[in-house]
Amino acid sequence: MHTKSILLTLFIASMVFTFSCDFTKKTVGSINLFPVEDDVKLGKQVAAEIASKPNEYPILSERQNPKVYQYIRKITNNILNSGVVKYKDQFAWEVKIINDDKTLNAFATPGGYIYVYTGLIKYLDSEDQLAGVMGHEIAHADRRHSTKQMTQTLGVQILLSAALGNREAVQQVASGIVGLKFSRNHEADADEYSVRYLCPTSYNAAGSAGFFRKISEGGGRPPEFLSTHPNPDNRVVDIEGQKTEMGCRGSSTNRSEYAKIKALL
């Protein structure tokens, strides 16, 4: 009888352990263990680190390019004022342009610091395409994908240390964010929310599909962040399908003004 009790106890313990491990695996990608109020602190630290490395991140002078910055901020505000961005009032939503024509990229830090490369601006053909890509990056910050992803790779303690200003931790997080490859689920979520953000605006809500269509057609070297993700053709279909499903009526592409901005770079 004693032996049976011991075996039963061990069996129950093993079942609890198995369930616990399975639960952790399923929830670690959806639950963010990093406090949302620290996204703002972390974003400030990472933005300061990026600003301290002008050779690595050559920020385009706003004083010399006021019209370009006004234009980019107009797009950002159109998205933020859509009424869909959850942390519109909590996050900074500061936009900087990185003067690098060879790089087709944009990224956002936790807390809403957004960086767009001149190479991406010049690569795109219209305002709705850039708005779609920016909506995608805003979604990564607003949906807190960065801290979810980096919690798994670096751990909560590193992120908290960086938020508190530990220089080594900040450097580690900054380099991780710039080159961060999001999971397929996070990329799909950002694609969807780009459409959701643009849907209430006058933009073509499937603007980001234009970027993926160009990539698919071979109109440039694909950015590294696309290298491990679904075929661009599939993303075009999903984005345009989301627009149709939501009944988005905006159609503005604004190619002429966009061409003028590109000419200023």
State the strand order across the main sheet. 1-3-2
> Which structural class is indicated by helix and strand composition?
mainly alpha
Using only CA atoms, what is the Rg?
21 Å
Number of helical stretches of at least 4 residues = 12
**How big a fraction of the residues is strand?**
under 5%
Percent helix range: 55-70%
- How is the main sheet built? 3 strands, mixed
Q: Termini, distance in Å?
A: 82 Å
Uncertain segments are: 1-29
Described by the principal axes of the CA atoms, the overall outline is: globular
How many strand units? 3
Mean pLDDT: 86
Note the run of SSEs as H and E. HHHEEEHHHHHHHHH
Word description of this protein:
With 265 residues, the protein is mainly alpha-helical. Helix content is 59%, strand content 5%. The protein contains twelve helices and three strands, in the order αααβββααααααααα. Strands 1-3-2 form a three-stranded mixed sheet, sandwiched between helices. The longest helix has 26 residues, at 2-27. It is globular. The N and C termini lie far apart (82 Å). Residues 1-29 have low confidence and may be disordered.
Structural descriptors:
single chain; 265 residues; mainly alpha; three-stranded mixed beta sheet
How are the elements arranged and paired?
Layout lengths: L1 H26 L9 H15 L14 H15 L13 E5 L7 E3 L4 E5 H6 L3 H16 L2 H9 L2 H8 L3 H12 L5 H15 L8 H10 L15 H15 L8 H10 L1
Parallel strand pairs: 1-3
Antiparallel strand pairs: 2-3
Helix pairs in contact: 2-7, 2-8, 5-9, 5-10, 7-8, 9-11, 10-11
